[in-house]
Design brief:
alpha/beta; Conserved hypothetical protein from pyrococcus furiosus pfu- 392566-001, ParB domain; 3 domains; 19 helices; elongated
């Protein structure tokens, strides 16, 4: 039996029992755990190890408590030691009493202790950091929080970033030593998933691969790079294989149907077009980037996703992004769509702007040339540079029949782009109200064939007000323009930040997914 189990110990008077006036032997029954502390569970194995150690050597480090009443104490730090002592059925344990700490300070000490131990669930840790900031006030500067918790800005961001991962994956993230390779991943593995922020399907596929193959975190990172280095098409194939491994089915027909459903949802955007004959065609949205890079143009660019992605790809050593987000011609990509044999819907220059200030019109001609040479696809061209767009078409530029032209309108200030779009001869002229960051007021939608509305995503995302969306929806209805409500972004209908998935794409309980008439009736099989 260890010395802590002696029953002859009694409670000495305050300040009389140890070398430090703040340390006392306190009855376990007088100590309560802090229900607000960051840790939600303990690892049984580690608790047993600690119990055995205390049994053999005694409790060497006192726990820290705060007095909450006469002979009543609440744990500040050392809950694990306390739990181990309880298992040993000890009568009293040494406690360091801190009287003056406020609740926020206590919480900060608890988080800091758990961070230094490195055995708190990484997800609990991320939530507790956010909770601490909430306690201190949402406008508290992060640098203050970081100082209090003794962590750097980079670590704080890495910790919190885990909460962007799909919830199912979050549940499987555990501290390193608690990992069961069949079901768990660690924080280090999660870093390989960060590369695909915003693409939950790829994250899920990569996660499946990590656990199915019991990869360590370095192998996981190599695997993530492989995903990136494949063409988008073959990457999708790989994802399908991974995800399909998890399909449960009752019969062959059942399996085939489920595989088909999966394939459809994997096709990014999963646009389903109906021909007049009623035959269903699934359109895959592809991206094609014959140029990359761009610069801020208007408020919609404040949190540019393309910029973040380009810089990430640059850090990963992707050769096409060697210049980061600086405008760069990618002539080796000019003919890509010609090699894609199945008809798809292609978003041109998702990582740039087709009419970027430095874009040479001869190069735009080459892009149009490819569009002409691969007429089995539909191409969506979108710009924030409406003046340059008008210039191009005024100076001999011709938009192929299978290309749609659109402008982004993110608020009232950018509405003048619509009148400029009307000047372009195009089968489909569309407006992307995304990210909608302000009310657009009254709209003239004459000559416009399609309106898409969407909110902003990402950590700095601005909320989109419901009234702004309804205003556009009503005007589309009045003026006969198909209305496609893409998503709320990370803020929901009430403007609360809940994440993209939870916020969804319903407007008063209805999903609006209308398409331009031309797609329904006339486009290619
Ligand atoms: S125009 Fe588009 S690609 Fe260019 S900075 Fe703005 S949001 Fe980014």
């Amino acid at each position: 039996m260890g010395k802590q189990r002696s029953t002859s110990e009694t409670t000495p008077a305050k300040g009389n029992n140890t070398n430090s006036p703040n340390i006392q032997m306190i009855l376990l029954s007088q100590i309560k755990v802090d229900e607000n502390q960051p840790r939600s569970e303990f690892d049984d194995g580690k608790l047993k190890e600690l119990k055995d150690s205390i049994n053999a050597n005694g409790l060497i480090h006192p726990i820290t408590v705060k007095e909450t009443g006469t002979n009543r104490y609440k744990i500040i730090t050392g809950e694990r030691r306390y739990e181990a002592c309880k298992l040993l059925k000890l009568g009293k344990i040494p406690c360091m009493i801190r009287e003056s700490e406020d609740e926020a300070k206590i919480f900060a000490m608890q988080i800091a202790e758990n961070i230094s131990r490195e055995d708190l669930s990484p997800i609990d840790r991320a939530h507790s950091i956010l909770k601490y900031r909430k306690i201190k006030g949402e406008d508290t500067e992060w640098k203050y929080i970081e100082k209090e918790l003794g962590i750097s800005e980079t670590r704080r961001k890495q910790f919190i970033r885990l909460l962007n991962l799909p919830e199912e994956i979050q549940k499987s993230i555990v501290a390193n030593k608690q990992r069961n390779k069949k079901t768990h991943i660690t924080e280090a593995h999660a870093r390989s998933l960060f590369i695909f922020d915003g693409d939950k399907r790829i994250q899920q596929a990569l996660y499946n691969r990590i656990v199915n193959r019991k990869l360590n975190h370095r192998e996981a990172m190599d695997e993530a790079r492989l995903f990136f280095n494949r063409t988008k098409r073959s990457a999708k194939k790989a994802i399908a294989v991974e995800v399909n491994l998890n399909i449960e089915y009752k019969s062959r027909d059942d399996l085939i149907e489920k595989l088909r459903d999966y394939a459809n949802t994997l096709k990014n955007g999963g646009v389903v077009a109906k021909k007049s004959s009623g035959t269903k065609i699934e359109w895959t949205t592809e991206t094609w980037n014959p140029t990359t890079g761009c610069k801020w143009k208007s408020k919609g660019c404040d949190n540019c996703y393309a910029k973040k992605m380009a810089l990430r790809l640059q850090r990963m050593g992707q050769i096409d992004y060697r210049n980061g987000f600086k405008f760069t011609y990618q002539p080796h990509r000019l003919l890509e769509p010609i090699h894609w044999k199945n008809p798809v819907m292609i978003f041109v220059n998702s990582m740039s702007d087709i009419f970027y200030d430095d874009m040479n019109f001869d190069y735009v001609d080459k892009i149009m040339n490819t569009i002409n040479k691969a007429p089995w696809h539909v191409y969506q061209l979108l710009t924030k540079r409406a003046d340059k767009m008008v210039d191009y078409f005024k100076n001999g530029g011709v938009l192929p029949q299978n290309a749609w032209m659109g402008v982004t309108v993110e608020n009232d200030e950018t509405k003048s782009r619509i009148a400029k779009l009307r000047k372009v001869k195009a089968g489909v002229r569309f407006i992307s109200f995304e990210p909608l960051v302000g009310d657009v007021g009254k709209l003239n939608l004459k000559g416009i064939h399609w309106a898409i509305v969407g909110g902003e995503s990402g950590t700095q995302a601005r909320p989109m007000e419901k009234e702004w969306v309804i205003n556009i929806k009503e005007q589309c209805k009045e003026q006969g323009v198909p209305f496609f409500f893409k998503q709320w972004g990370v803020h929901n209908e009430e403007g609360v930040k809940v994440g993209k998935e939870k916020a969804g794409s319903e407007l008063d309980g209805i999903k609006y997914k209308e398409y331009p008439e031309v797609l329904k009736n006339t486009l290619i099989v």
